[in-house]
């Protein structure tokens, strides 16, 4: 849990610098402030869990607390309005659109760093089609 707070502090410092930029919209600034506040509260929760003054938690309770923090982090990671459009794969028959599949861009993006790659980069995956 101590490894959790160091990267969060760096993101909070980065968010503070980023909010002062003039190229961000009001929505971007509010989103960064929301992430910053949420991360600060999570860091404080981690500190309170790991403090020796607090009553000792069982392993089960500690795991539940860690899963709650994980769920909150996952909520922050998913962008509600991603700037890159999704990819649509269309199935055509006689120049008519018969079915389509929508793939989120964050699953397809490539990065040199393995941690920042999308989950399905360089893999074939099934596309379940829908009727248009």
TrEMBL record:
A Pfam family of this chain: FerB
Keyword Membrane attached: yes
GO cellular component: membrane
Zinc-finger is among the record's keywords: no
Domain Ferlin B-domain: start-end pairs: 80-132
Superkingdom of this protein's organism: Eukaryota
Family matches, as InterPro entries: Ferlin, Ferlin_B-domain
Major location category of this protein: membrane
Record-level GO BP terms: plasma membrane organization
Locations listed in the record: Membrane
Keywords noted in UniProt: Membrane, Repeat, Transmembrane, Transmembrane helix
Protein name: Ferlin B-domain domain-containing protein
Record organism: Aldrovandia affinis
